[in-house]
Structures are given as C-alpha cells and as structure tokens.
Amino acid sequence: MKNNILLEVVNLTKSFQGFVANEDLNLKFKKNEINCIIGPNGAGKTTFISLISGHLYPTKGEIIYKNMLINNLDVVTRANLGIARKFQTPSVFSNLTVLENLELSILKNKNKNVNLHDKLEWTLDLIKLENERNTLSQNLSHGQRQWLEIGLLLGMDAELLLIDEPTAGMTEAETAATANLIKDLANNYKKTIIIIEHDIAFIKNLNANIIVLHLGKLFATGTYDQISNNKEVKDIYLGNEK
Amino acid sequence: MFKKKNLNIITIFFLLSVVPILFKGYVVFVLPQYILFGLLAMSLAFIWGNAGILSFGQASFFAIGGYAFGLLIKFFPGINHFFIGVILVIAIGFLIAAITGYFLFSAGVKATYFVLATLALSILTEQLAVTKSNFTGGWNGLFVDRINIYLGEINLLELGGDVKIFYLILFISLIVYLFLNYLETQKIGKVLRGIRENEDRMLALGFNTSFYKTIAFGISGSVAALAGALYATHANFISPSVAGVLFSTEVVVWVAIGGRYSLLGAFIGGIIVSFLSNYLSTLTPQYWQLFLGIVFIITIIFFKDGLAGIFNQKIKFKKLDEK
User: d(Cα A153, Cα B120) in Å, to the nearest integer?
Assistant: First the structure.
C-alpha cells in the first residue's frame, strides 16, 4: 500500500438485521486531506463514521488504518491509535470548565516532550476559547461546545479526525471560522479529516474531496465543482429518481 | 479555596481530638465507632462523588474487613496483630471489591443495575456470616480481641486502653482522608470525574474506563474493610447485622446527607447521622427511622450536595456580599 494513505476501507458492509446501512464501500483517505461525506438522510454517513471509530463493527469487509487491519479493535484501542471522533450532538463534560475538559483530553497524551501548559494554550487559541477557559462547558453556546469537542480531539493528539456535523447550530460567522480551523488543522497540523456535513457553502469553502453516499452505497466522488455539476447527485437530493 | 478546605479539616480533627481531654467514660469509648462509620461513609463518597458509582455494597466490605480481622487474630494469635492484620485486611478488601468491580464494570453494568448487584453482595455477605457459623459464630457474632501494637518489644497499645485506641482510630482516619484527598487531585481523580460526567466521551478519548472504575472500587472496598476491622477490634465484636441491606442503606443515607461530593462532608455525615440515629432510637424507638427518612428525602430534593453543599453555598453567598 502506498504510504500516503492513512485509512482504507475494502468492501465495507454493515447491515442491521437485514437492513443494509453501508454496502460494499471501497474508499481511500490520503494523509493530511479533508474529506467530506454528504448524502441525503439515511445514506449511511453516521454509520460509516461509527464503523471507523469502533462504535460499530462491520458485518463484512476490511478497515485498514496505517496498514493495519483494525476491524476488531474497540473504541478505546482505536482512540489510542489516533482515531478521534466528534459526535453529532456535542459530547463534552458539561459540569467541567473548558480548561478541565481539555486537561482530560491531554492526560492521554503519550508524547512526553509536550509541555502540557503550552499544549493547553495552543488548543485554547485554535478553538478560540481563550476567554472562556473558566466557563463551565454547559454555559457555552452550541457552536462553542462544538469547538470545545474538536479541542478534545486535538488534546489527544489524534491523526484521523472524524467530525460529525460540526456546524450544526452555528452562526454564519462561526461556520466560516470552523472552516478555517479545519483547513488549518489539515494544512498546518497534519490532520486527516473526515467530515459529515449538510451546509453546502461550508463544504465549498473547505475545498475538500467529496464523497456522496446514497442508500448505503457509494454514489459519487469528486471535487466540489464536479459534484455540484453532477445531475444525478442533484436528483437524489431532490428526489427526482426514476 | 484550598486554604479554606485545609482549615475545615484542621478544625474538625482538632475538635475530635480534644474530646478525650474534655470528656471521660462512655463518650470516649463510643465516639471511635462513629468515627469509623464516618470512615465507611468516606469510602462510599470516594466512588459515588468522584465517579458517580453508587454502591450498596459498602457494608459488605465493612463486614468482610471485620470478620477477616477477627478470624486472623483468632487463628493466628501469634502474629503482630496490627501491622500484618491491617495490611491483610486492606488487601482483602481491595481484592474482593476489585474482582467484583472487574466483572461488573467490564460487563458494562451501570447505574441501577450496579446498585442491585452490590445490594446482592451485601445480602450474600450477611448470609455467609450467618450460615458459616462454625467460623463466624452465626447470629451470635464473633468476638474480636483488642489489638496490640508492638514496636520491637514495646507494647505501644495495651489491651483496652480507650483513649489510646481513640487516637489511633482518629489518626488512621486522618491518614485515609489525606490519601483519598490526594488521589482526587491526581490523574485517577480527574479521570473518575470525567467518567462521572460523560463516560462515552472518556472511552472515545481512549481511556479504559472500566480499569479506572475497578481500581477506584477496589480502593473504596479497602477503606471500608479497614473501617470494619478497626470497628471489630474496637467493639470486640462483629455480627452479621453490619453486612445486611439495612446497614448498607444507612451508609448511603449518611453520605447523601453529609454530601457525596465532599470526603469531609461524608465523614461528618457518617459521624453525626449514625450518632443521631442511635440517640433517636433510644428516644423514640418507633419513629426514629421515620424521622431519618424525612431528613433523607428533604436532602435529596432540596440539598443535592448535602450538608457540605449547604456549607459551601453559605460561604459563596458571604463572598458575594463582601463584593
């Protein structure tokens, strides 16, 4: 396998008692690239993320991460291999402050050369919560909680970030800031990112590889321009299928 | 904040330590038992407050500690009771709790189901204590000698010295408090609080949460067993009644009233509520449990953080006024 591939799935299939949520997906994810998964409701986007994060196990197929078959590894093991997930509904520690939240994520950091204090400040700066460090995370806005959760993924030094709907509940300005943050992470901090998103302006801004899923199957892949000019993709969103 | 906490500890342990100077007789004899109930309450607050794990099995570990210590002294009278006995009891308490915890936590048993499983453990311990009567004395209980502490040839603690054993128990309680308090500030304490707040997030961050919960439950079990051993040797006696469902429930009530987020609150809650229960039970044998029940319900509804919570709130308001 080529060295610049971080994650590959081969014939990845997940069925729930006969209902096939992901069917024979074959995809490769290059290092330091942003990938966007789109598709109408029920396309199997979150199922795909869960298969990669270990919250679900595949019925069939292979998940290869860093040339290693990880099909049977659990969430904890995968997290320690550098696979981190931001959930659809922000999953942070509500009764702890922003700083305490980040401290917990950094506790797992195995890199002994990292100065924890610097790492905290660096993360706070990136996720724009320097002024909220002592705020209980339950008192943050929805958008800020999304950032905080991304901050947790950074604290654990993950390489592969699985980000499920990061801009839900965000203002336009916050959405733009999130796009910049994600681009920054891929370009300057060597993160490989897989995002599920619905916001088309956000996706355009990211300039990412787009993967279209439909009814559990791979429907199309390409750049923003290719996908936005693809008539069939438009049809599945509008329900014009024949 | 940190200083205020230190002041509370010093005040409480100072007040307890002057009791044998000011009073004589029964108070000095009986207070250590309440202090040990306080220690038992602390063992529950450590896991309930920090990790959100509610256990109805603390009485079980308390009884196991008491019986283990009693049987060790009975069958190996030659050993240096205190040092070896205490270390063994701590190890036994840790092992039994950790093994129980390991199976329950790694199987994903949580919340109400965990409560039920630990409740069953208390019943099991009580039944064992009753039925294995050739070892335990059944309902009649087991007589346990007072400990001797030897340092070389010198006997530091003679049999039956009420004042000496009072200070020994108070000293051990302080050491245990400082130890648990230290753990709360360390990595394990932070991880446990993370588990309490959001276990799924902790898993996704890569923490093996059942490992941390198992260790915490083991530590809690060892503290409860230590309290039980000291209780048995202090009272010269241990019986199945300290293992049962009733006693287990009482421990939960003490901690809920004292404040589960505060080791010190739970400690005080254990001492005061167990003392009041005893006092009320002589005053009004019919109604004291009703009274305790009402206090418990009021606490649960209005003061979720117990006495310690009320105390902290008051200080917060004072600070606001000063501003």
Answer: 40
Any A CB within 8 A of B215 CB: no
B190/A76 Cβ within 8 A: no
Tokens of B193: 């609080």
E strand or H helix at B246? helix B245-258
**What is the token pair recorded at A139?**
């008192």
Residue ranges of the domains in chain A? Answer: 5-238
Find, in chain B, the residue whose alpha carbon is nearest to that of A75.
Answer: B204
Whole-complex ipTM? 0.91
User: Which residue of A76, A87, A96 is in closest CB contact with B207?
Assistant: A76
Strand partners, A19: A16
Q: Give the pLDDT confidence score for residue B319 in this predicted structure.
A: 52
d(CA B4, CA B312): 10
Place of tokens 């002589």: B282
Rounded distance, CA A227 to CA A85, Å? 26
| Coil, helix or strand at residue B211 | helix
Distance CA B45, CA B42 (A): 5
- Say which residue, A66 or B284, is predicted with more confidence: A66
Q: Centre a 10 Å sphere on the Cβ of residue A137 and count the other Cβ atoms it contains.
A: 24
| pTM assigned to the model | 0.90
- Using CB atoms, pick whichever of B193, B205, B209 lies closest to residue A105: B205
CB within 8 Å: B194 and A87: no
Question: Among residues B275, B218, B228, B210, which one has the least CA distance to residue B70?
Answer: B228
How many Å apart are CA B230 and CA B36, to the nearest integer?
7
Q: What is the pLDDT of residue A240?
A: 58
Choosing among 3.90.550.10, 2.70.70.10, 1.10.10.10, 3.40.50.300, the CATH entry for A5-238 is 3.40.50.300
In the stretch 56-85 of chain B, residues with CB closer than 8 A to chain A read none
Are B174 and B164 spatial neighbours (Cβ–Cβ below 8 Å)? no
Q: What is the pLDDT of residues A165-207, one digit of tens each?
A: 999 888 899 999 999 999 999 999 999 999 999 888 899 999 8
Instruction: Provide the token pair at A195.
Output: 């995002």
For the purposes of burial, counting CB atoms within 10 Å of the CB of A239, is it exposed (0-12), middle (13-18) or buried (19 or more)?
A: exposed
Contacts (Cβ under 8 Å, ≥6 apart) of B280: B287, B288, B291, B292
Angle at B238 between CA B276 and CA B22, to 5 degrees: 45
Distance between alpha carbon B2 and the CA centroid of its chain, in Å?
24
